[in-house]
Inverse folding.
């Protein structure tokens, strides 16, 4: 592997500055372009008819009454759309023999989850479409539904009877087979004889990304290109997949992601709603719009996590880990979504985390169910892995009777040991776990809180204090294309950028990374301002439209800065190299004597020089250029990363538990993350705050709950508990900095960091408070009900489902409607 | 259809609406006031918050006919003569928004909060914003924005 040594000495100006965001102005004044804001002449509105059953044959669909309703233009079923509707692709078959059922946007024979679309009503207004959708009469023959992950893995009920099994793919990594480490079964056998073996089953509950902007799509089939606006993270992937599956040439397709209201992985998808809008728009020859309701979003936009983790950790009796064995069951839902089973595989390289484990084995069985399909949710595979290992390290510390940091220090990679090749085969380029941990403990007041905890325990206080620890690292910056190829992923991991020097000296930057709240416009402007020596205000960042940004692989996996930003740097450097001979020509000097610094080309040893804007003007008029020079400074670059980058951090959580009620109150949360060089500290802090909150929410609040007939009972914001301001506290965030060596700017990803480490830190704190009652696990989300029961049970198995009475809205006897 | 006359962002509108039309749909679809958005169907998220006669309401929870003869202020009517409202400015300065979808409702609710309680504690701010969901910011910087707009000292 080549490390990038060429790091020009940039005079620090914009990079590192707390620049206020450029994109705020329109967002705080209501001048936004959400997809649902778009209205086109003659536009028709769509409403979906969705299956109320998790698994059923479609016997008959009667659309007569709906067709006759006021303002209705068409009512279409899967049979009506036929092959023209295309299919929804899975881009990552994790094994070559993966079972991947055909995923039609609108099936005509059988539905396989509650929420699947069986008909679409098209009308002149959204209200008329929705009214008429109520009139579509569907006869179903209900089939047994496959709803329990462990039972589904045993094929007790089949989600897709034709497949003959619920098992989709089995993926394995073994360090002995790969030559990256020893044999894990031998390590476990040795530990059973003379060391410590920790065996645990952990549940990663099903979550819903719950972005604030409901998904929306507009298709305009008029004109030479067919245009789709979509609330998506991935306009380029949508365009490719439309071309690949609907028979429309890629060159005839334009996809636009206008202002997009959050994604968190939840809008990294190719959706039935997009494909149906595409088919209906083309069929009717009119612009069409569909915007989902929140209930539809929670029910039918993809879900995340949903795993059982069977973990075996082997250690010496001193606490040195000798092996880790991970056996996962992962629920795919009813189809293999675009990334699908790739999500747990992204965790395969991360269970060994920041530690030096001599032996490691990871296996994952992906399994179908009759539930919404699962895919990326913030962190995607890495939170699950970090949760598993960080819970185990706490269990090991407890077994030894030592502070949780003792076992971590005993096993982590020390800062002198970088670059370090892990037992999973990744090369970590840099890091300093000792420094981040020391800083976090100090800022947190670790020793004082431990003293208070002891005092509360000794006095038998009703309110007990729990202190949770989690370290983490993650691989981010998806991804080196060769690595993706070796994993059978269907695309590369490069990113594209263009830099255009305008005649007036302003700069247009085009990026293939499509932002949806991250602040690309601001951060990328800072990078370009420094690189080209132009004012921050003079840089315009364009993205999210395949016509202006024709090449790109979009935004996910903490990749925009570390991959997209690097493409930007390379494009800007090409602009400088194109401008250099022009400067030499105009200054009547040799090219070798031209120096570029802070936006100015000057002749060595003289005071003669020209600003880059003056060169841009001279190139625009093209009156006096070097012979044979193409009159353009504009440059493109496509960057394929050479390695991932590896941010890391130490997170500490203190929380209070009322032992009489099970109520948890957050007391303090400190994290110190090493994310390399920071472009904009303000944006970074925002990413951390939001990430922490989502991770804490997994630990304490959120779960997608299905009843025993396969109905999502957490299908509204009344029941799916996205935390409010009152549920959260202010965070104490800090940084240590070891620049990444795998990109020029020395940056590491930050988008997912907060989510990855916070979940285990919180659950470790809960367990830490309750261990005195014989409790060694509380299943997530750690609701007051579960905490209270854990205390009462005195260490009995904690893996109990939420009681049915906790969902009274759906209980007729409680006065709700079923 | 019912005829209503509503003052919205300092302009008077008279329109025919279906009695079932929600205020938010009237604002968005008939008046083109798309700065106010819909985020849920259960009045939990608060993305659609506007002011009705100076008090915050969730406009998905008010019928357009109920606004007849009343005054509505949306996010689009806050800035006067090109000057941002202090709460808008505070959200910008404190980086209290990311994707910006909850922001219009969050700003409208925050203004109402300070109208009621000009110098709220952090706890009071958090309680006062409980009806508005944000998925991006973890609320940390939103709390700081409200503190800033109230002229109080702000911890980092």
């Amino acid at each position: 592997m080549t490390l990038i040594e060429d790091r020009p000495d940039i005079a620090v100006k914009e990079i590192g500055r707390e620049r206020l965001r450029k994109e705020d102005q329109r967002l705080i004044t209501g001048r936004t372009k959400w997809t649902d804001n778009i209205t086109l002449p003659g536009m028709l509105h769509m409403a979906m008819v969705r299956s109320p059953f998790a698994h059923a044959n479609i016997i008959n669909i009667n659309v007569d009454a709906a067709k006759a309703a006021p303002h209705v233009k068409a009512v279409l079923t899967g049979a009506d759309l036929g092959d023209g509707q295309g299919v929804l692709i899975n881009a990552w078959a994790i094994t070559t023999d993966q079972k991947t059922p055909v995923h039609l946007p609108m099936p005509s024979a059988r539905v396989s989850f509650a929420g699947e679309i069986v008909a679409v009503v098209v009308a002149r207004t959204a209200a008329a479409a929705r009214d008429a959708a109520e009139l579509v009469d569907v006869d179903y023959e209900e089939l047994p539904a496959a709803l329990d992950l462990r039972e589904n893995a045993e094929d007790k009920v089949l989600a897709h009877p034709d497949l003959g099994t619920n098992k989709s793919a089995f993926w394995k990594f073994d360090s002995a087979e790969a030559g990256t480490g020893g044999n894990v079964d031998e390590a476990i056998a040795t530990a059973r004889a003379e060391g410590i073996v920790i065996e645990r089953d952990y549940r990663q509950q099903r979550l819903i990304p719950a972005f604030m902007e409901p998904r929306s799509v507009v298709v305009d089939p008029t004109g030479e290109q067919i245009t789709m606006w979509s609330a998506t993270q991935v306009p380029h992937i949508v365009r490719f997949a439309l071309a690949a599956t609907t028979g429309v040439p890629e060159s005839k397709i334009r996809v636009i992601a206008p202002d997009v209201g959050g994604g968190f992985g939840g809008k990294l998808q190719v959706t039935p709603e997009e494909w149906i809008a595409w088919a209906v728009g083309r069929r009717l020859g009119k612009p069409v719009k569909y915007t989902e309701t929140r209930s539809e979003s929670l029910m039918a936009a993809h879900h995340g996590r949903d795993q059982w983790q069977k973990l075996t950790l082997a250690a010496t009796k001193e606490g040195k880990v000798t092996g880790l064995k991970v056996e996962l069951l992962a629920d795919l839902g009813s189809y293999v979504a675009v990334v699908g089973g790739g999500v747990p595989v992204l965790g395969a390289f991360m269970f060994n985390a920041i530690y030096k484990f001599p032996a490691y084995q990871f296996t994952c069985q992906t399994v179908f169910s009759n539930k919404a399909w699962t895919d990326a949710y913030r962190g995607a595979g890495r939170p699950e892995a970090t949760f598993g290992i960080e819970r185990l390290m706490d269990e090991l510390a407890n077994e030894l009777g030592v502070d949780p940091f003792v076992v971590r220090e005993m096993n982590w990679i020390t800062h002198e040991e970088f670059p370090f090749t892990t037992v999973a085969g990744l090369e970590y380029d840099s890091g300093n776990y000792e420094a981040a941990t020391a800083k976090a403990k100090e800022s947190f007041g670790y020793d004082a809180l431990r003293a208070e905890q002891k005092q509360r325990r000794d006095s038998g206080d009703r309110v007990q204090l729990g202190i949770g620890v989690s370290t983490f690292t993650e691989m981010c910056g998806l991804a080196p294309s060769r690595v993706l190829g070796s994993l059978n992923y269907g695309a590369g991991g490069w990113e594209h950028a263009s830099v255009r020097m305008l005649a007036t000296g302003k700069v247009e930057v085009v990026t293939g990374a499509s932002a949806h709240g991250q602040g690309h416009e601001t951060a990328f402007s800072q990078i370009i301002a420094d690189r080209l020596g132009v004012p921050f205000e003079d840089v315009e960042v364009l993205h999210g439209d395949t016509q202006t940004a024709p090449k790109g692989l979009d935004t996910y996996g903490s990749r925009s800065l570390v991959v997209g930003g690097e493409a930007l740097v390379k494009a800007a450097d090409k602009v400088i190299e194109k401008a250099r001979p022009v400067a030499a020509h105009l200054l009547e000097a040799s090219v070798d004597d031209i120096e570029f610094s802070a936006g100015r080309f000057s002749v060595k040893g003289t005071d003669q020089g020209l600003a880059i804007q003056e060169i841009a003007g001279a190139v625009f008029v093209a009156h006096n250029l070097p012979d044979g020079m193409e009159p353009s400074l504009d440059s493109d670059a496509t960057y394929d990363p050479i390695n991932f980058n590896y941010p890391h951090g130490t997170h500490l959580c203190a929380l209070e538990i009322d032992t009489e009620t099970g109520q948890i109150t957050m007391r303090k949360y400190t994290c110190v993350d090493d994310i390399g060089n920071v472009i904009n500290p303000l944006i970074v802090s925002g990413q951390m705050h939001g990430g922490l909150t989502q991770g804490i929410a997994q630990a304490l609040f959120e779960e997608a709950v299905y009843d025993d007939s396969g109905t999502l009972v957490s299908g509204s914001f009344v029941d799916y508990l996205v935390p409010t301001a009152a549920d959260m506290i202010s965070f104490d965030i800090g940084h240590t900095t070891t620049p990444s060596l795998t990109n020029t700017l020395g940056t590491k990803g930050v988008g997912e960091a907060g989510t990855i480490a916070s979940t285990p830190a919180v659950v470790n704190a809960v367990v830490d408070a309750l261990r005195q009652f014989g409790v060694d696990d509380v299943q997530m989300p750690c609701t007051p009900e579960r905490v209270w029961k854990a205390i009462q049970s005195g260490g009995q198995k904690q893996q109990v489902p939420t009681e049915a009475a906790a969902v009274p809205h759906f209980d007729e006897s409680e006065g709700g409607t079923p | 259809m019912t005829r209503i006359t509503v003052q919205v962002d300092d302009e008077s509108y008279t329109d025919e609406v279906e009695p079932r039309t929600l205020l938010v749909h009237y604002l968005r679809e008939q008046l083109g006031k798309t700065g106010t958005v819909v985020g849920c169907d259960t009045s939990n998220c608060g993305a659609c918050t506007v002011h009705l006669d100076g008090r915050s309401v969730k406009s998905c929870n008010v019928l357009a006919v109920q606004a007849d003869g009343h005054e509505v202020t949306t996010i689009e009517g806050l800035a006067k003569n090109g000057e941002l409202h202090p709460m808008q400015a505070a959200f910008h300065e404190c980086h209290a928004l990311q994707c910006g979808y909850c922001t219009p409702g969050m700003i409208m609710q925050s203004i109402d909060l300070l109208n009621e309680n000009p110098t709220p504690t952090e706890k009071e701010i958090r309680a006062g914003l409980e009806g508005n969901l944000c998925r991006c910011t973890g609320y940390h910087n939103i709390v700081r924005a409200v503190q800033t707009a109230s002229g109080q000292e702000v911890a980092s």
Remarks:
- Residues 2-76 of chain B form a domain with the Ubiquitin-like (UB roll) fold (CATH 3.10.20.30).
- Chain B touches chain A through 56 residues (CB under 8 Å).
- Helices of chain B lie at 23-30, 86-93, 103-116, 122-128, 140-149.
- The radius of gyration of chain B is 15 Å.
